[in-house]
Specification:
- The structure holds 2 protein chains of 2 kinds.
- By secondary structure, chain A is mostly helical.
- Chain A is about 75% helix and about 0% strand.
- Chain A has one domain.
- In chain A, helix 1 runs antiparallel to helix 3, helix 2 packs across helix 3 and helix 3 runs antiparallel to helix 4.
- The longest helix of chain A has about 35 residues.
- Chain A is elongated and about 55 Å long.
- Chain A starts with a helix and ends with a helix.
- The relative contact order of chain A is 0.14.
- The longest helix of chain B is centred in the last third of the chain and has 26 residues.
- Chain B has one domain.
- The chains are: A mainly alpha, B mainly alpha.
Chain lengths: ~120, ~280
């Protein structure tokens, strides 16, 4: 039990610092290229307009990373951040399986399934 | 204003948001939303994206400090996450149809409730006789005391707690914040979980709940890199500082000041929501 807690703590720490580092790379490119531009207009959001693929789809983000696109790098950092709680739940699932706590292995799987299915369905 | 100025101001504000969010247990999103909407005139639908990033950063950032001490009740958190993640999925669907005014009023309401609940006495709920359901779900636990020993606790009203958690999830899906206040009502108020345990467990749940709706928001374009970058970095370092300070600092005075501040923000939000100030 002690080991898995240590592992969870380390996973969270490595996860958030990785996320931070990737976002920081993006942030530096962003300020380098656009720092002197006027602030973008964030005063109106529309659900019907299409938003740039470079930060809304996995494929777009991946292509943007190879192009050293600032938005894609930042968004990759956001995705790395999103993965930390998901990884944590996954580690707990393994822990419950190892303890042969089938009830909680099941409950944890349900939580994971809700998150994953919701992420894929859109 | 230039991109550079906006980014640096938001970075500083996010650091403070992460610091306050982790010291008060409310999460970074609670401060990020008013900074974006009231100070910079950002649309709420972008601010929600920023708040989601802030919630996950606070949760994972301060979580890495809490788990080691063994206070978090993982079973309780996991069980209640079924409720919060389902709620968050529903909230993310509903949010599309809500305009800024409605979101502002809901947010103001949650803040007022938060300010009131922050004044409550923190209780360790000693001598609670747990319910049969809680026992069958193996939700009883133990938590470390100052002298290094462990104290066991029992809890009850699983159904009531679970129901409130669905609402907490819906609000989290709509607003992007951790809606810690409802988690405290459910765990502390209804289920009688010791205060320290409910705070850290709520923090653990905040990140997972935010994840359930964050991917949808990212695909819809609500999470914009220009906002997400300073928020992610600022809140993360703020939360790490906060988790470190929390061990040494008496935060009672800070919590009281913070309650008054969020009450003022809440009234401003509701007023502007009612008068169409955000449209």
């Amino acid at each position: 039990m002690k080991d898995i807690k240590q592992l969870i703590g380390n996973t969270l720490r490595i996860g958030v610092f990785t996320a931070c580092f990737i976002a920081l790379v993006g942030g530096i490119i962003y300020l380098w290229k656009h720092g002197a531009d006027p602030m973008p207009d964030y005063s109106h959001f529309s659900y019907s307009d299409a938003h740039p693929e470079e930060y809304t789809t996995l494929g777009g983000i991946w292509a943007g990373i190879l192009d050293m696109n600032a938005y894609s790098w930042i968004q990759a950092g956001v995705i790395a951040l999103l993965l930390t709680p998901i990884l944590r739940v996954t580690l707990s699932l393994f822990d419950f399986l190892r303890e042969r706590d089938w009830l909680y292995a099941f409950i944890t799987s349900v939580v994971l399934a809700i998150i994953i299915s919701n992420s894929l369905s859109v | 204003m230039t991109v550079l100025a906006f980014t640096l101001i938001l970075l500083a504000a996010s650091y403070l948001a992460g610091l306050l969010g982790s010291l008060t247990g409310l999460g970074g999103g609670v401060v990020v939303i008013p900074v974006l909407t009231l100070a910079f005139g950002v649309d709420f639908h972008y601010a929600i994206g920023g708040a989601l990033v802030a919630s996950i950063a606070t949760s994972s950032g301060s979580g890495s400090a809490y788990v080691k001490e063994g206070i978090t009740n993982i079973r309780l958190g996991m069980f209640l996450e079924i409720a919060t993640t389902i709620g968050a999925v529903a909230g993310a669907i509903v949010a599309v149809w809500l305009n800024n005014s409605v979101i502002a009023i809901i947010y103001g309401g949650v803040l007022i409730l938060t300010a009131i609940m922050q004044q409550r006495k923190k209780s360790d709920h000693e001598g609670v006789v747990g319910s049969e359901t809680a026992k069958r779900l193996k939700l009883f636990g133990e938590w470390p005391q100052k002298d290094g020993s462990f104290k066991t606790y029992e809890l009850k009203n699983v159904g009531g707690g679970f129901s409130v958690m669905v609402i907490a999830g819906v609000l989290s899906g709509i607003l992007g914040i951790g809606s810690g206040v409802l988690k405290v009502i459910a765990m502390d108020g209804l289920m009688k979980v010791p205060f320290k345990v409910s705070t850290t467990t709520s923090n653990f749940m905040m990140g997972v709940t935010a994840c359930a709706s964050a991917v949808v928001y990212l695909q819809r374009g609500n999470i914009v890199p220009g906002i997400a970058c300073p928020v992610l970095i600022g809140v993360l370092f703020g939360a790490l500082t906060g988790a470190r300070l929390l061990k040494k600092l008496d935060v009672r005075v800070l919590r009281r000041i913070f309650s008054i501040a969020i009450l003022l923000v809440a009234l401003n939000m509701i007023y502007q929501g009612l008068t169409g100030g955000f449209e």
